[in-house]
Amino acid sequence: MSTGVELLLGFVGIAVLLLLSGLVSGSEVAFFSLTANDYEELEQTNNPSRDKLLELREKPRLLLATILIANNFINIAIVLVSEIMLSKLFPASLFAAWALNIQENLTFMRQVGVDTLSGAIGFAITVIGVTFLLVLFGEVAPKVYASYNKVQLATQMASPVALLMRALYPISSSLVQGAGFIERRLENHTLDAAAASQEDIDEAIDLTVNSDEGGEETQRQDVDILKRIVKFNNVTVRQIMRSRGDVVAVDSKLSYPEVVSVVRESSYSRIPVFEEDFDKVVGLLYVKDLLGHRHEPADFDWIKLMREDILFVPETKKISDLLKEFQTEKTHMAIVVDEYGGTEGIATLEDVLEEVIGDIHDEFDEDDEIIYQRIDELNFVFDGKTLLNDVYRVLKMSTSTFEPVKGEAESLAGLFLELLGRLPEPGEELVYENYRFQAMSVNKRRIQEILITLPEPPESDPATPPT
């Protein structure tokens, strides 16, 4: 085969590889830029690639690993082909002549051998040229294009990438498992360090307060408040919010008598108003605004009393930031939303303050806000939806007790599911760090009641059960 044909095939090969590199790099941006609205539009248009895209979305780590591996293979191929092409275009004798010319003009370069210097020149040309091609045509240009045409590119690349995922599965799955192992080790190390730090601070608070004068009850309250202040900046809205299943809200289509009935039964001062379902909250109804309209007819348009200035906050927001926002916006209630804009629940100023000063009870609160039953000194039955923070508070436990295993769970039922990995059967038990959990009552959707058995206390240190 003649040199001219080899060069032509080489240039064609590099062009094809650059195109593949660009498509793979651009697909990375396209796949991971798709939003929930984009998927909804794809479903409405009955796009044939919809199922493939949904399949890829369910395996984000495997998808990313596949893209990275494929891109690296293509880039390595580009480097190898470019090296062969440069050896054809620039023979070794040309680099040797350049090396000799450099040594004649630069005295200090004479200490370097001609072969070494000519090899360095060839390597520099290869690196600079290939890097320029890869960055421009394999990274920058395709990713810019993908950012503006993400849906189109994602639908076109769904099938090829799915095929690549199957072909590279042994390598990509090993990469994902290895990365997951390292991530877990780092996460556990971080959690252990944070837990140790929290325990040190708690111990220091106990020693400091116990050394002061004052009654035992006063000291206990001081300790609790100081510990809550320390962890205040680390608490998220999700940990203190009232979940949507426990929120009292009214439909904007309800009649005035029905709204008044809800107000009387709930005894709340502020009630969210929604349209169609609770994911679309449109305002807040202040009960005090109804006082001047107690004798209105049944067809009274109460919607005009609704206030539309609603504060929406993400569930991951820190309550320290939420408190500042309450002060700035001069409001006492926020609607908590998830990453897709769906309503998760509500958070109030009272919920935030309770994280520092403890439970606040008014004349409308029930005597026991946290639903639990004490069986004996070591056994307690809690409602499954009880927040872990409340469980810690009732059982006088460290807030880091279940931190290594709770994952994203904020409720006791969520912790049980994280530990077990599935919905338990009624009566099923599990043990973690000498804490025994038993699912007392389970329906098809959630764990309703959980029995917690505390570890046996040392004989030298008899148990002091919480009251």
Would you write up a description of this structure?
It is a single chain. The protein has 467 residues and is of the alpha+beta class. It has three domains: 3-167, no CATH class; 235-357, CBS-domain; 370-467, Uridine Diphospho-n-acetylenolpyruvylglucosamine Reductase, domain 3 (2-Layer Sandwich), CATH 3.30.465. Helix content is 55%, strand content 12%. The chain has 15 helices and twelve strands. It has helices at 3-33, 36-44, 50-57, 60-89, 92-105, 114-148, 150-167, 169-210, 216-231, 237-240, 256-266, 319-329, 349-357, 388-395, 412-420; strands at residues 242-243, 250-251, 270-274, 281-286, 312-314, 333-337, 343-348, 372-374, 379-383, 429-432, 435-442, 447-453. The mean pLDDT is 80.
Report the sheet with the most strands, covering strand number, pairing sense and barrel closure: 5 strands, antiparallel
Number of domains: 3
Gap between N and C termini? 91 Å
Structural class label: alpha+beta
DSSP helix count?
15
Strand line-up in the sheet with most strands: 8-9-12-11-10
Q: What is the total tally of β strands?
A: 12
- The ordered H/E elements are HHHHHHHHHHEEHEEEHEEHEEHHEEE
- Give the overall pLDDT as a whole number: 80
Uncertain segments are none
Query: How much of the residues is beta strand, in percent?
Result: 5-15%
What value does the Rg take, in angstroms?
32 Å
